[in-house]
Amino acid sequence: MMRVRDKKLSATITVIGFGSLLSEQDARRSCPNLTGFRRAVVRGHRRVFHKVDSNIGGLTQDLHIADWTFSSDDRDDTLVTVFEVPAGEWPVLVAREFDYDLKEVPFEEADTGKQGTGIGCFGFESNAACDERGQNDPMRSKDYARYRRFYSGPIYRQDIFPWSYYLARCLNAAHKQATEYVHNILDHAYLADGETTIRSYLKMHGLSSPPVPAEVLASPHYAQPDITLGQFMERAGYIGLEQLDWLERLL
User: Fold this and answer.
1) What is the DSSP annotation of 107-159?
2) Which of 41, 118, 196, 245 is the most buried (most CB within 10 A)?
3) How does pLDDT run across 56-67, given as a tens digit for each residue?
4) C-alpha torsion sign, points 221, 223, 225, 226
5) What's the structural domain count of the chain?
6) Is 250 inside a domain boundary?
7) How crowded is residue 113: how many other Cβ atoms within 10 Å of its Cβ?
8) CATH number of the structural domain spanning residue 163
9) Distance between CA atoms of 76 and 222, rounded to whole angstroms?
10) For residue 249, is it within any domain?
11) Does some domain include residue 251?
12) Are strands 189-190 and 35-52 parallel, antiparallel or unpaired?
């Protein structure tokens, strides 16, 4: 696994989709110039819900605010998608994923078995490392500073749980690929404790998404004159777990 330093030498960058980018539609919304969208597997890696989601961090006291990162673990393999984007879009990619440690990781294409490497969204080794990169990397600093106006706490935490709207969005994207992608999330993605699978969590927690907290709806983070939080979530593909009418039978 290699940390990415400079992507200017290549014509394209290979990106690994492991969340909402499992859906080609969502991937094209984020990366309209992508090519070569295909399925793959990253061996020896898992998803872990231990990062505060930058769309909601600081806007509520609720602990259900986590999204996930890639994490190395020989016990798990992760089903993903991979695709290429022009190398000139690298700064945009870094800015969008400002709170992730972007690293190259090997993958194997599902249909051909071809080996390759792509950019994965990993967690930082510490909050100090995340803060240092966010403050000093010119590709990240603007978005990092904007985020820190609303959330000043640790970005990586062990006391938080999945933001249900993010989890539902990722499960829905996985379902668009294949049922095995859904099962891969259920059995090879974990809470921040690194032990509780998402399948176990959903069986305990239930398939419901609480209303968006009033303090989030009122926050200037979303108080844009031309869009409400509800419209933002709809456009971004955020849905409630209870809207996934196929999920209960897969648990």
Assistant:
1) EEETTT--EEEEEEEEPPSSHHHHHHHHHH-TTTHHHHHHHHTT--S-SB-SS
2) 118
3) 877 777 888 999
4) positive
5) 1
6) no
7) 7
8) 3.10.490.10
9) 37
10) no
11) no
12) parallel
